[in-house]
Structures are given as structure tokens and as C-alpha cells.
Amino acid sequence: MRVIYVLLAVMMCSIVLGAAPVYADLQDDVDQAATIIERFQAVPEKAIPQSVLKDAKGLAVMTVIKAGFGVSGRGGKGLVVARTRNGWSGPSAIGTGGAGFGLQIGAEVT
Fold first, then answer.
1. What would the pLDDT profile of 26-70 be if each residue is shown by its tens digit?
2. Residue 1 belongs to what H/E stretch?
3. pTM surpassing 0.85?
4. How many CB atoms lie within 10 A of CB 83?
5. Does the N-terminal or the C-terminal CB of the chain have fewer CB atoms within 10 Å?
6. How many CB atoms lie within 10 A of CB 65?
7. Extents of the domains making up the chain
8. Rounded to an integer, what is the distance from CA 42 to the centroid of its chain?
9. Cβ contacts of residue 110 below 8 Å, gap of 6+?
10. Cα angle vertex 93, ends 66, 45, to 5°?
């Protein structure tokens, strides 16, 4: 019986300690997305048109890294918000990934 209590305590500690980095990571993504949008809006040629933002159902901001030399891989993360009846929703984390092969050389950050 004692072993069960010890296992439960270890599991609870790992859940609680594991949750803090996830929150901190999401906050970093929110800060980065806010900075990206502010920088886009500061340059009129790159700004998101007000008519697009006014009618938007949601907004996603992602950073994706791709690299390849014969075999390629890509991965990225970001966040998405949706427009609700009461304004914008809270952010949700999103991610993407993929792999490829063939004649290719290069790297890209989007």
C-alpha cells in the first residue's frame, strides 16, 4: 500500500513540476506573437489590412524552420486565437512538422 502512495506522490510532483515550463513556454509564444504583429503593423507595406482584421474569424502566428540536404525536415510552433461573440479568445498553442526526401539543399525560417 505504501508503494502506491509513493507512486502517486511521484506522479503528482511530475505533473505539477511539468506544468510550469509549459506555461512559461506558452507565455514566450504569446510575447513573440505580439512582437511580430506589432512589427508588421509598424510597416505600412507589410501591415495586415484593417478590413482583413475586422472580418477575421481567427489569427494564427507561427515560426517554422525548414532545412534539408537530400532529406528535409520542418518544424514549428506558434499560437492561434479565435474571434468569439465576446471578443478574442485566449491563445491556444499549435505546432507543425514534416519530413521530405529528394533533390534539395537549403534552409528557411518562416
1. 888 888 888 988 888 898 888 888 888 888 999 999 888 999 888
2. none
3. no
4. 15
5. N
6. 13
7. 2-109
8. 22
9. 62, 63, 64, 65, 66, 76
10. 65
